[in-house]
Amino acid sequence: MKAAVLEHPLTISIKSLERPVPNAGEVLIKITAVGLCGSDVHYYEHGKIGRFVVEKPIILGHEAAGEIVGIGEGVTSLSVGQRVAIEPGMTCGECEFCRDGTYNLCSEVEFLATPPYDGAFCEYVTMREEVVYPIPDSMSDETAALIEPFSVGLHAVRRGTLTEGETVIIMGMGPIGLMAAANARLAGASMIVAVDLEEKRLDMARQFGATHTVNLREGKLEEELAHITDGRGVDLALETAGHPDALRQAIQAVRRGGRVVIVGLPPVDEVSLPVPYMVDSELKLIGVFRYHHTYPDAIKLLSDGKVDITQMITGKYSLEETGAAFQAAIHDKANTLKMMIYPG
User: What are the two backbone dihedrals, phi and then psi, of residue 296, each rounded to the nearest 5 degrees?
Assistant: First the structure.
């Protein structure tokens, strides 16, 4: 099979590799569409994200969909010919987190495109049966691939315990911010304030459910939000930008007793926070790491067509053009949101 391999930072080569064979409990999937994630870009540019370091050539890409073309021994719930979405993390199934349902915290997870595990910028992958989900005929390959970032937004909204009628602010309208906006809308938020530096991303945020937008290049967030909320602040803030200033602004944006959900990872390990303000306001600070138990619900939510998450696709590339997709994502941030790779 062909694969786009990251040889070292900023260098991707198209290689001919042996097609994988499914073991017992696994299926072989022909990949049809893969989204380019911000984490892929970090590995491409810098060769690491936090404690995860690329130490040998690796295949990136974890937002994937495809068609089952082979079945391993013992697989009973799937069959050849089914179109599927792939949940990219295969956990141990035995640790305390797997047993209590928070399997996203499993320390033994094998997650596609997270070193040392290869991802899906290739023609075929094998996955365990329990992380492969059939999709309806009406769902496109692109939508199925984007269930992965949609799941991050869904998990963030759930962690924030958003209830119908509450108000939300989202810091950063990249793909995850957009997915958070879509899920906040589906959860019944009465007000969704989208914040970014790029007007094109704010335009897209309106398509995904934002009722108000704030361009930080044109105004101060504190003043704009005071006007929008009559000085009250919002019930829930979702920080998806991964910037220390955005996190501090999110904390200042919520009402007394409000909640702040941290989704984005800042480029530094430590960030200064207004602790006296947080204590005085009795704020809840909540972390988000990937997701759990989201794929079946996400497939249902996206099957009725109420939300078209493929709107955020701004570029389509063949497998041979994977390097060009990375370059576009790095050098044209103002005009790129989600790049889609088609290994077929």
Answer: -60, -40
Mind spelling out the 3-state secondary structure of 162-190?
CCCCCEEEEECCCHHHHHHHHHHHHCCCC
Q: Which pTM does this prediction carry? A: 0.95
Paired sense of beta strands 191-196 and 124-128, if any: unpaired
Q: What is the pLDDT at residue 265? A: 85
Residues 6+ away with beta carbon under 8 Å from 250 = 169, 171, 237, 238, 239, 260
Beta-ladder partners of 193: 169, 212
Q: Is 213 helix (H, G, I), strand (E, B) or coil?
A: strand
Segment 68-89 mean pLDDT: 98
Q: Are strands 83-86 and 63-71 parallel, antiparallel or unpaired?
A: antiparallel
Question: In which order are the strands placed within the sheet that holds 254-262?
Answer: 212-215, 191-196, 167-171, 234-239, 254-262, 284-287
What is the rounded CA–CA span in Å between residue 332 and residue 32? Answer: 25
Distances from the Cα of 111 to the Cα of 255, 299, 344, angstroms: 37, 20, 22
Name the residue among 268, 194, 201 with its Cα closest to residue 228.
194
Element (H, E) at 303: helix 295-303
Domains belonging to the chain, first-starting first, are 2-145+308-342 (3.90.180.10), 152-287 (3.40.50.720)
Residue 215 is encoded by which pair of tokens?
């361009």
**Phi, psi torsion values for 69, nearest 5 degrees:** -125, 0
Q: Which residue is listed with tokens 């361009």?
A: 215
CA distance 196 to 202: 7
Residue 246 in contact with residue 264, Cβ under 8 Å? yes
Distance in angstroms (rounded) separating the CA atoms of residues 240 and 309: 17
Cα dihedral 137/118/38/211 (nearest 10)? 30
Average pLDDT estimate for 312-318: 97
Torsion angle of the four alpha carbons 287, 288, 293, 295, in this order, in degrees rounded to the nearest 10: 160
What's the chain's average pLDDT? 96
Helix (H, G, I), strand (E, B) or coil at 221: helix
Q: Is the pLDDT of residue 267 over 80?
A: no
